[in-house]
Request: fold
Amino acid sequence: MLITGQCQCGNVSFNLEWLPDPTRIPAWACACSFCQAHKGVWTSSPSADLKVKISNLALLTRHTFGTRTAEFLICKQCEDTPLVTSEIDGRLYAVVNIHALQGISPTLLKYFHSNFDGESVEERTERRRRNWIANVSINGL
Ligand SMILES: [Zn+2]
Reply:
């Protein structure tokens, strides 16, 4: 299934190829203060393929906090946060924001609440390696 997504203004857009076709798409509502403030609800599949296109890099902010192991990509123009990336052993991993997905039937979404506060950096890295999108390319970065 090819899922397209973008920030509100379209400066950041992506193609997410999710194979095999998902019977449901997990939507993780993260409890951290940043995600609460930025409507951060994330999805990923380790076998998916993500191609991101950024039209104007000058309109992009990359925000890190906490353990500084992940980067939130924020569009300055519309203030959306369409994706988060994490580099692990030289490989780029990512999750995408549910709010950025286009044309997804709400019945496909299965919501979870997550709280990763107690995790060590090692646990966090392992979880991302297992669950995050492992094939990520971003043009312009
Ligand atoms: Zn935007």
Observations:
- DSSP finds two helices and eleven strands in the chain.
